[in-house]
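hey can u run this one w/ flavin-adenine dinucleotide bound, need the structure tokens asap thx
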Amino acid sequence: MKITDIFKQPPRTFSFEFFPPKDEISAVDFGINVGQLMNLNPSFVSVTYGAGGSLQERTFALVDYLQNKIGLPTMAHYTCVGASKEKILADMHAIRAMGIENLMALRGDPPKGSAAFKPHPDGFAYADELIAFIRAAGFNFCIGGGAYPETHPEALSREADIRNLKRKVDAGASFLLTQLFYDNAGYFRFVEQCRAAGIVCRIIPGILPITTFSQWERFSAMGNAPAALGEQLKSFAGNPKKVYQAGMDFAIAQCRELLSKGAPGLHFFTLNKSRATVEIFEEIS
Ligand SMILES: Cc1cc2nc3c(=O)[nH]c(=O)nc-3n(C[C@H](O)[C@H](O)[C@H](O)COP(=O)(O)OP(=O)(O)OC[C@H]3O[C@@H](n4cnc5c(N)ncnc54)[C@H](O)[C@@H]3O)c2cc1C
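ok here u go:
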């Protein structure tokens, strides 16, 4: 089922993002966690796409499993990192052959160690070009795109980033999923600016609960972890239970506020774990 058709049913969507398990032990762990998350009856699930051949094959295998064995509406993430037009076409045929109807079409990040994104000589520099190419080749996937309430780090300005986002939607993206953020007011301001720029599709917030201090440090280095939460977590150093609970309290309050102020759903970056997402669901439903 296309995600745009799912949008016609319930007023909001709750979706889960996974990454392909890296080995057999992680795969068993993944199975247990997915089992628990399935009890929450998600609107759809998605699987991330990494750089490198074997990782990409694992994405396709997991997408196939979730869609065709478990029976969940599944979205395959896809990036144009290192991909020629010929490879993109072959991959689109492979995804369609699996019965996948939803595609998260992304540019991707530069490989580790490279400062700037370098497109394949016969490929694409931006997600809007990738999306236009997929559409022109006749694939009728429901396409999602990435959106950045705190502005994409490479963007020349916030205005330029939103103009580029509009290009992505005009090229054929039917909805947007955001990068993680912790400032709800910033998300709602961003949505307003997108609406003013003529972007009318759903902009679904991406949620990643912070449950350890090292996670807070990592996101803080990227510029988007809340300082007050950091202070609180620091005061609980040496007590992981209290740290976890403080992070969860923050996430629950964030999700409640997003929904009460009109966000069209929540997309959880589950990190292949179920506990935090299940606990948030119990609190917000
Ligand atoms: C929900 C979500 C899921 C993700 N999943 C994955 C995943 O599975 N695998 C993975 O590798 N990465 C993933 N990413 C990360 C993503 O690949 C990076 O954030 C990447 O840096 C940008 O991808 P994009 O598709 O948003 O790029 P784009 O939309 O192409 O934007 C990249 C930059 O270029 C600018 N730009 C865009 N179009 C133009 C244009 N036409 N002309 C000039 N400038 C332009 C934008 O302003 C922005 O600064 C995900 C991101 C999100 C938000």
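The two ends are 24 Å apart (CA to CA). anyway lmk if its weird
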